[in-house]
Amino acid sequence: GRQHVLLIWLLLYSSMVEALEPVGTTIAIGAVAVTGVLVRSMSCYFNECCQPEWISFNITKLERNLDNKLFGQHIASSIILNAVSGFMRNRNPKKPLVLSLHGWTGTGKNFVSQLIAESIYKKGMKSRFVHLFTSTLHFQHKHRIDTYEAQLQQWVRGNVTDCELSMFIFDEMDKMHPGLIDSIKPYLDYYDNLDGVSYGKSIFIFLSNEGGDNIAKTALEFWQAGKSREEIELDDLENTLSLSVYNNKNGGFFRTSLIDKNLVDFFIPFLPLEYEHVVQCAMAEMEARNLRPNRDVADRVAKEMIYTPKLDRLYSSTGCKTVQNKLNFYI
Ligand SMILES: Nc1ncnc2c1ncn2[C@@H]1O[C@H](COP(=O)(O)OP(=O)(O)OP(=O)(O)O)[C@@H](O)[C@H]1O
Ligand SMILES: *[C@@H]1O[C@H](CO)[C@@H](O)[C@H](O)[C@H]1NC(C)=O
Ligand SMILES: *[C@@H]1O[C@H](CO)[C@@H](O)[C@H](O)[C@H]1NC(C)=O
Ligand SMILES: [Mg+2]
Protein backbone atom coordinates (compact mmCIF):
# COMPACT_ATOMS: atom_id res chain seq x y z
CA GLY A 1 0.00 0.00 0.00
CA ARG A 2 2.35 2.69 1.29
CA GLN A 3 5.16 1.85 -1.06
CA HIS A 4 2.81 2.06 -4.03
CA VAL A 5 1.64 5.51 -3.07
CA LEU A 6 5.21 6.65 -2.71
CA LEU A 7 6.13 5.29 -6.10
CA ILE A 8 3.22 7.04 -7.79
CA TRP A 9 4.05 10.27 -5.98
CA LEU A 10 7.65 10.03 -7.16
CA LEU A 11 6.63 9.45 -10.74
CA LEU A 12 4.23 12.41 -10.75
CA TYR A 13 6.81 14.65 -9.13
CA SER A 14 9.54 13.82 -11.60
CA SER A 15 7.30 14.40 -14.60
CA MET A 16 6.23 17.75 -13.16
CA VAL A 17 9.81 18.85 -12.74
CA GLU A 18 10.50 17.80 -16.28
CA ALA A 19 7.57 19.84 -17.54
CA LEU A 20 8.66 22.90 -15.64
CA GLU A 21 12.32 22.87 -16.57
CA PRO A 22 13.27 25.95 -18.67
CA VAL A 23 13.73 24.26 -22.03
CA GLY A 24 10.48 22.37 -21.74
CA THR A 25 8.61 25.48 -20.74
CA THR A 26 9.98 27.41 -23.67
CA ILE A 27 8.96 24.65 -26.02
CA ALA A 28 5.50 24.52 -24.50
CA ILE A 29 4.97 28.26 -24.79
CA GLY A 30 6.39 28.21 -28.32
CA ALA A 31 4.03 25.44 -29.31
CA VAL A 32 1.04 27.39 -28.05
CA ALA A 33 2.11 30.49 -29.98
CA VAL A 34 2.79 28.58 -33.19
CA THR A 35 -0.58 26.90 -32.94
CA GLY A 36 -2.23 30.30 -32.65
CA VAL A 37 -0.51 31.64 -35.73
CA LEU A 38 -1.23 28.45 -37.62
CA VAL A 39 -4.92 28.53 -36.80
CA ARG A 40 -5.10 32.11 -37.98
CA SER A 41 -3.25 31.55 -41.23
CA MET A 42 -4.84 28.15 -41.75
CA SER A 43 -8.08 29.73 -42.88
CA CYS A 44 -6.10 31.73 -45.46
CA TYR A 45 -4.09 28.68 -46.37
CA PHE A 46 -7.02 26.56 -47.35
CA ASN A 47 -9.63 29.18 -48.12
CA GLU A 48 -9.18 32.08 -50.48
CA CYS A 49 -8.86 35.34 -48.63
CA CYS A 50 -8.09 38.93 -49.51
CA GLN A 51 -4.34 38.58 -48.88
CA PRO A 52 -1.20 38.57 -51.03
CA GLU A 53 -1.10 34.76 -50.89
CA TRP A 54 -4.16 34.80 -53.09
CA ILE A 55 -4.04 38.17 -54.76
CA SER A 56 -0.83 39.42 -56.26
CA PHE A 57 -0.12 40.70 -59.70
CA ASN A 58 2.29 38.71 -61.88
CA ILE A 59 3.24 40.94 -64.80
CA THR A 60 5.35 38.23 -66.42
CA LYS A 61 2.36 35.96 -66.54
CA LEU A 62 0.11 38.60 -68.08
CA GLU A 63 2.71 39.58 -70.65
CA ARG A 64 3.46 36.01 -71.63
CA ASN A 65 -0.19 35.08 -71.92
CA LEU A 66 -1.02 38.14 -74.00
CA ASP A 67 1.93 37.42 -76.28
CA ASN A 68 1.35 33.72 -76.67
CA LYS A 69 -2.36 33.17 -76.31
CA LEU A 70 -4.09 36.24 -77.67
CA PHE A 71 -4.03 36.40 -81.45
CA GLY A 72 -4.34 39.39 -83.77
CA GLN A 73 -4.97 42.03 -81.10
CA HIS A 74 -1.79 44.09 -80.99
CA ILE A 75 -3.57 47.25 -79.81
CA ALA A 76 -5.61 45.61 -77.07
CA SER A 77 -2.63 43.59 -75.94
CA SER A 78 -0.31 46.53 -75.41
CA ILE A 79 -2.89 48.84 -73.82
CA ILE A 80 -4.00 46.17 -71.41
CA LEU A 81 -0.50 45.30 -70.32
CA ASN A 82 0.35 48.95 -69.72
CA ALA A 83 -2.95 49.84 -68.10
CA VAL A 84 -3.06 46.90 -65.71
CA SER A 85 0.60 46.96 -64.74
CA GLY A 86 0.57 50.73 -64.24
CA PHE A 87 -2.47 50.46 -62.06
CA MET A 88 -1.16 47.56 -60.01
CA ARG A 89 2.18 49.32 -59.49
CA ASN A 90 0.43 52.36 -58.00
CA ARG A 91 0.14 51.80 -54.27
CA ASN A 92 -2.41 54.50 -53.81
CA PRO A 93 -4.62 54.79 -56.89
CA LYS A 94 -7.03 57.69 -56.87
CA LYS A 95 -9.76 55.85 -58.72
CA PRO A 96 -10.46 52.29 -59.80
CA LEU A 97 -9.19 51.07 -63.13
CA VAL A 98 -12.00 51.18 -65.68
CA LEU A 99 -11.54 49.43 -69.00
CA SER A 100 -14.06 49.20 -71.79
CA LEU A 101 -13.47 46.47 -74.35
CA HIS A 102 -15.13 46.70 -77.76
CA GLY A 103 -15.26 44.54 -80.82
CA TRP A 104 -17.10 41.96 -82.84
CA THR A 105 -18.18 38.69 -81.33
CA GLY A 106 -15.50 36.09 -80.70
CA THR A 107 -12.54 38.45 -80.90
CA GLY A 108 -11.29 37.75 -77.39
CA LYS A 109 -12.94 40.18 -74.98
CA ASN A 110 -14.00 37.61 -72.41
CA PHE A 111 -10.80 35.73 -73.02
CA VAL A 112 -8.67 38.78 -72.17
CA SER A 113 -10.68 39.45 -69.02
CA GLN A 114 -9.86 35.92 -68.00
CA LEU A 115 -6.14 36.47 -68.66
CA ILE A 116 -6.22 39.62 -66.54
CA ALA A 117 -7.99 37.80 -63.71
CA GLU A 118 -5.49 34.94 -63.88
CA SER A 119 -2.56 37.34 -63.60
CA ILE A 120 -3.93 38.85 -60.38
CA TYR A 121 -5.96 36.19 -58.59
CA LYS A 122 -4.56 32.77 -57.90
CA LYS A 123 -7.96 31.29 -58.64
CA GLY A 124 -8.49 33.39 -61.75
CA MET A 125 -12.11 33.69 -62.81
CA LYS A 126 -13.08 31.29 -60.04
CA SER A 127 -11.90 33.72 -57.39
CA ARG A 128 -14.60 34.93 -55.07
CA PHE A 129 -13.26 38.42 -55.62
CA VAL A 130 -13.96 38.34 -59.34
CA HIS A 131 -17.55 39.13 -60.23
CA LEU A 132 -19.04 38.60 -63.63
CA PHE A 133 -22.33 40.29 -64.39
CA THR A 134 -24.11 39.42 -67.61
CA SER A 135 -26.75 41.92 -68.64
CA THR A 136 -29.04 39.37 -70.20
CA LEU A 137 -28.81 37.20 -67.13
CA HIS A 138 -28.63 39.50 -64.11
CA PHE A 139 -30.51 42.53 -65.41
CA GLN A 140 -32.99 41.00 -67.76
CA HIS A 141 -36.28 42.75 -67.13
CA LYS A 142 -36.69 46.37 -68.12
CA HIS A 143 -39.41 47.11 -65.58
CA ARG A 144 -37.20 46.06 -62.69
CA ILE A 145 -34.54 48.64 -63.40
CA ASP A 146 -34.98 50.38 -60.04
CA THR A 147 -34.41 47.15 -58.17
CA TYR A 148 -31.37 46.41 -60.29
CA GLU A 149 -29.88 49.81 -59.61
CA ALA A 150 -30.16 49.35 -55.86
CA GLN A 151 -28.96 45.77 -56.05
CA LEU A 152 -25.97 46.58 -58.20
CA GLN A 153 -24.88 49.38 -55.90
CA GLN A 154 -25.24 47.13 -52.92
CA TRP A 155 -23.30 44.29 -54.53
CA VAL A 156 -20.43 46.48 -55.57
CA ARG A 157 -20.28 48.21 -52.22
CA GLY A 158 -20.55 44.95 -50.29
CA ASN A 159 -17.93 43.20 -52.34
CA VAL A 160 -15.42 46.04 -52.19
CA THR A 161 -15.96 46.27 -48.45
CA ASP A 162 -15.03 42.59 -48.33
CA CYS A 163 -11.93 43.07 -50.44
CA GLU A 164 -10.60 46.29 -51.93
CA LEU A 165 -8.95 44.44 -54.74
CA SER A 166 -12.14 43.19 -56.34
CA MET A 167 -12.74 42.84 -60.04
CA PHE A 168 -16.08 43.44 -61.72
CA ILE A 169 -16.76 42.40 -65.28
CA PHE A 170 -19.90 43.63 -66.98
CA ASP A 171 -20.57 41.45 -69.99
CA GLU A 172 -22.91 42.39 -72.85
CA MET A 173 -22.96 46.05 -72.00
CA ASP A 174 -24.72 46.72 -75.29
CA LYS A 175 -27.73 44.83 -74.00
CA MET A 176 -27.78 46.58 -70.67
CA HIS A 177 -30.54 49.04 -69.94
CA PRO A 178 -29.21 52.55 -70.58
CA GLY A 179 -28.91 54.28 -67.25
CA LEU A 180 -28.30 51.24 -65.11
CA ILE A 181 -24.57 51.62 -65.27
CA ASP A 182 -24.85 55.22 -64.08
CA SER A 183 -25.87 53.86 -60.70
CA ILE A 184 -22.31 52.78 -60.01
CA LYS A 185 -20.81 56.01 -61.30
CA PRO A 186 -19.87 57.37 -57.85
CA TYR A 187 -17.72 54.29 -57.27
CA LEU A 188 -15.73 54.87 -60.43
CA ASP A 189 -14.97 58.49 -59.67
CA TYR A 190 -12.11 60.15 -57.83
CA TYR A 191 -12.91 59.83 -54.14
CA ASP A 192 -10.67 58.85 -51.28
CA ASN A 193 -13.56 56.96 -49.86
CA LEU A 194 -17.34 56.89 -49.92
CA ASP A 195 -19.06 56.07 -46.66
CA GLY A 196 -15.83 54.58 -45.41
CA VAL A 197 -15.27 52.33 -48.40
CA SER A 198 -12.52 53.11 -50.86
CA TYR A 199 -12.90 51.84 -54.40
CA GLY A 200 -9.50 52.94 -55.68
CA LYS A 201 -8.00 49.46 -55.81
CA SER A 202 -10.80 47.75 -57.73
CA ILE A 203 -10.96 46.98 -61.41
CA PHE A 204 -14.03 47.39 -63.60
CA ILE A 205 -14.18 45.91 -67.07
CA PHE A 206 -17.00 46.49 -69.53
CA LEU A 207 -17.45 44.27 -72.55
CA SER A 208 -19.55 44.99 -75.61
CA ASN A 209 -19.92 44.60 -79.34
CA GLU A 210 -20.66 48.29 -79.67
CA GLY A 211 -18.24 50.05 -81.94
CA GLY A 212 -17.26 46.75 -83.52
CA ASP A 213 -18.51 47.82 -86.94
CA ASN A 214 -16.49 51.02 -86.80
CA ILE A 215 -13.39 49.14 -85.82
CA ALA A 216 -13.90 46.69 -88.68
CA LYS A 217 -14.43 49.58 -91.08
CA THR A 218 -11.17 51.20 -90.08
CA ALA A 219 -9.33 47.90 -90.35
CA LEU A 220 -10.75 47.40 -93.82
CA GLU A 221 -9.67 50.88 -94.89
CA PHE A 222 -6.14 50.13 -93.80
CA TRP A 223 -6.19 46.93 -95.77
CA GLN A 224 -7.59 48.67 -98.84
CA ALA A 225 -4.86 51.28 -98.59
CA GLY A 226 -2.31 48.48 -98.66
CA LYS A 227 -1.22 49.02 -95.08
CA SER A 228 -0.62 46.21 -92.67
CA ARG A 229 -2.90 45.44 -89.79
CA GLU A 230 -0.15 46.15 -87.28
CA GLU A 231 0.01 49.75 -88.47
CA ILE A 232 -3.40 50.48 -87.00
CA GLU A 233 -2.98 52.51 -83.84
CA LEU A 234 -5.23 53.33 -80.96
CA ASP A 235 -5.48 56.92 -82.17
CA ASP A 236 -7.10 55.73 -85.37
CA LEU A 237 -9.93 54.22 -83.36
CA GLU A 238 -10.31 55.64 -79.90
CA ASN A 239 -12.31 58.78 -80.62
CA THR A 240 -14.80 57.28 -83.02
CA LEU A 241 -15.13 54.42 -80.60
CA SER A 242 -16.15 56.40 -77.54
CA LEU A 243 -18.44 58.59 -79.63
CA SER A 244 -20.26 55.76 -81.31
CA VAL A 245 -20.68 53.99 -78.01
CA TYR A 246 -21.94 57.12 -76.32
CA ASN A 247 -24.50 57.80 -79.02
CA ASN A 248 -25.83 54.30 -79.46
CA LYS A 249 -29.43 54.60 -78.25
CA ASN A 250 -29.76 50.91 -77.59
CA GLY A 251 -26.61 50.33 -75.63
CA GLY A 252 -25.76 50.41 -71.96
CA PHE A 253 -23.42 53.35 -72.47
CA PHE A 254 -26.05 55.60 -74.09
CA ARG A 255 -25.36 59.17 -72.97
CA THR A 256 -23.83 57.81 -69.82
CA SER A 257 -22.05 60.13 -67.45
CA LEU A 258 -19.27 57.56 -67.25
CA ILE A 259 -18.15 58.81 -70.64
CA ASP A 260 -19.16 62.44 -70.04
CA LYS A 261 -16.99 62.57 -66.98
CA ASN A 262 -14.12 60.60 -68.48
CA LEU A 263 -14.42 57.85 -65.93
CA VAL A 264 -13.53 55.16 -68.43
CA ASP A 265 -9.74 55.08 -68.44
CA PHE A 266 -9.29 53.13 -71.65
CA PHE A 267 -11.49 52.29 -74.62
CA ILE A 268 -9.89 49.21 -76.03
CA PRO A 269 -10.64 48.11 -79.59
CA PHE A 270 -10.61 44.47 -80.61
CA LEU A 271 -9.91 44.04 -84.30
CA PRO A 272 -11.89 41.58 -86.38
CA LEU A 273 -10.01 38.31 -86.81
CA GLU A 274 -8.67 37.07 -90.13
CA TYR A 275 -8.42 33.55 -91.50
CA GLU A 276 -4.92 33.10 -90.16
CA HIS A 277 -6.00 34.01 -86.63
CA VAL A 278 -8.79 31.46 -86.73
CA VAL A 279 -6.21 28.87 -87.73
CA GLN A 280 -4.12 29.93 -84.72
CA CYS A 281 -7.14 29.58 -82.45
CA ALA A 282 -7.76 26.07 -83.75
CA MET A 283 -4.12 25.08 -83.28
CA ALA A 284 -4.13 26.49 -79.75
CA GLU A 285 -7.31 24.63 -78.95
CA MET A 286 -5.83 21.32 -80.10
CA GLU A 287 -2.81 21.95 -77.92
CA ALA A 288 -5.05 22.77 -74.99
CA ARG A 289 -6.71 19.39 -75.47
CA ASN A 290 -3.33 17.65 -75.46
CA LEU A 291 -3.57 16.80 -79.14
CA ARG A 292 -0.81 17.36 -81.60
CA PRO A 293 -1.70 20.59 -83.44
CA ASN A 294 -2.59 19.67 -86.99
CA ARG A 295 -2.54 22.40 -89.61
CA ASP A 296 -4.86 20.49 -91.99
CA VAL A 297 -7.52 20.21 -89.33
CA ALA A 298 -7.05 23.84 -88.38
CA ASP A 299 -7.48 24.85 -92.02
CA ARG A 300 -10.66 22.87 -92.32
CA VAL A 301 -12.08 24.53 -89.21
CA ALA A 302 -11.07 27.98 -90.41
CA LYS A 303 -12.63 27.39 -93.83
CA GLU A 304 -15.98 26.73 -92.23
CA MET A 305 -16.20 30.24 -90.86
CA ILE A 306 -18.08 32.96 -92.67
CA TYR A 307 -15.92 35.87 -93.74
CA THR A 308 -16.94 39.43 -94.49
CA PRO A 309 -17.15 41.65 -96.46
CA LYS A 310 -18.65 39.34 -99.06
CA LEU A 311 -16.24 40.34 -101.79
CA ASP A 312 -12.92 40.24 -99.99
CA ARG A 313 -13.78 37.62 -97.38
CA LEU A 314 -11.36 39.10 -94.89
CA TYR A 315 -12.78 38.92 -91.40
CA SER A 316 -14.40 36.04 -89.60
CA SER A 317 -17.84 37.26 -88.62
CA THR A 318 -17.81 35.20 -85.45
CA GLY A 319 -14.12 35.52 -84.74
CA CYS A 320 -12.85 32.39 -83.03
CA LYS A 321 -16.08 31.82 -81.20
CA THR A 322 -17.22 28.56 -82.75
CA VAL A 323 -13.78 27.05 -83.22
CA GLN A 324 -14.07 24.76 -80.20
CA ASN A 325 -17.33 23.22 -81.38
CA LYS A 326 -16.27 22.91 -85.00
CA LEU A 327 -13.11 21.17 -83.91
CA ASN A 328 -15.18 18.41 -82.35
CA PHE A 329 -16.20 17.22 -85.81
CA TYR A 330 -12.64 16.55 -86.87
CA ILE A 331 -11.05 14.94 -83.84
N1 LIG B 1 -8.00 37.04 -80.27
C1 LIG B 1 -8.09 35.79 -79.81
N2 LIG B 1 -6.98 35.08 -79.52
C2 LIG B 1 -7.07 33.82 -79.06
N3 LIG B 1 -8.23 33.18 -78.82
C3 LIG B 1 -9.36 33.83 -79.06
C4 LIG B 1 -9.37 35.17 -79.56
N4 LIG B 1 -10.63 35.56 -79.72
C5 LIG B 1 -11.39 34.55 -79.33
N5 LIG B 1 -10.64 33.49 -78.93
C6 LIG B 1 -11.14 32.18 -78.48
O1 LIG B 1 -12.53 32.14 -78.75
C7 LIG B 1 -13.26 32.00 -77.54
C8 LIG B 1 -14.43 32.96 -77.54
O2 LIG B 1 -13.95 34.29 -77.45
P1 LIG B 1 -14.51 35.35 -76.40
O3 LIG B 1 -15.51 34.71 -75.53
O4 LIG B 1 -13.37 36.01 -75.74
O5 LIG B 1 -15.23 36.36 -77.39
P2 LIG B 1 -15.92 37.75 -77.07
O6 LIG B 1 -15.09 38.79 -77.72
O7 LIG B 1 -16.16 37.86 -75.62
O8 LIG B 1 -17.26 37.59 -77.89
P3 LIG B 1 -18.76 38.10 -77.54
O9 LIG B 1 -18.81 39.53 -77.96
O10 LIG B 1 -19.62 37.24 -78.37
O11 LIG B 1 -18.98 37.90 -76.08
C9 LIG B 1 -12.29 32.29 -76.43
O12 LIG B 1 -12.54 31.46 -75.32
C10 LIG B 1 -10.95 31.95 -77.03
O13 LIG B 1 -10.68 30.59 -76.85
C1 LIG C 1 4.79 34.56 -62.55
O1 LIG C 1 4.43 33.89 -63.73
C2 LIG C 1 5.49 33.19 -64.34
C3 LIG C 1 4.99 32.69 -65.69
O2 LIG C 1 3.77 32.04 -65.59
C4 LIG C 1 5.94 32.08 -63.41
O3 LIG C 1 6.99 31.34 -64.00
C5 LIG C 1 6.40 32.69 -62.10
O4 LIG C 1 6.71 31.67 -61.18
C6 LIG C 1 5.30 33.58 -61.51
N1 LIG C 1 5.84 34.31 -60.38
C7 LIG C 1 5.27 34.23 -59.19
C8 LIG C 1 5.92 35.05 -58.12
O5 LIG C 1 4.31 33.56 -58.96
C1 LIG D 1 -21.03 40.29 -54.24
O1 LIG D 1 -21.51 40.13 -55.54
C2 LIG D 1 -22.30 38.98 -55.73
C3 LIG D 1 -22.63 38.88 -57.18
O2 LIG D 1 -21.47 38.56 -57.90
C4 LIG D 1 -23.53 39.02 -54.86
O3 LIG D 1 -24.30 37.87 -55.03
C5 LIG D 1 -23.09 39.17 -53.42
O4 LIG D 1 -24.24 39.32 -52.61
C6 LIG D 1 -22.18 40.37 -53.26
N1 LIG D 1 -21.66 40.39 -51.91
C7 LIG D 1 -21.98 41.35 -51.05
C8 LIG D 1 -21.35 41.24 -49.70
O5 LIG D 1 -22.73 42.26 -51.33
MG1 LIG E 1 -18.00 37.79 -74.61
Automatic annotation (TrEMBL):
GO terms for biological process: nuclear membrane organization; protein localization to nucleus. It comes from Poecilia reticulata (Guppy). It comes from the Eukaryota. ATP binds at G103, W104, T105, G106, T107, G108, K109, N110. One of its GO terms (molecular function) is ATP binding. This is Torsin. Residues 1-19 form the signal peptide. Belongs to the ClpA/ClpB family. Torsin subfamily. GO terms for cellular component: endoplasmic reticulum lumen; nuclear envelope. It is found in: Endoplasmic reticulum lumen. The keyword GTP-binding does not apply. Pfam families: TOR1A_C (PF21376), Torsin (PF06309). PANTHER family: TORSIN, TORSIN-1B. Residues 273-330 form the Torsin-1A C-terminal domain. The keyword 4Fe-4S does not apply. Keywords: ATP-binding, Endoplasmic reticulum, Glycoprotein, Nucleotide-binding, Signal.
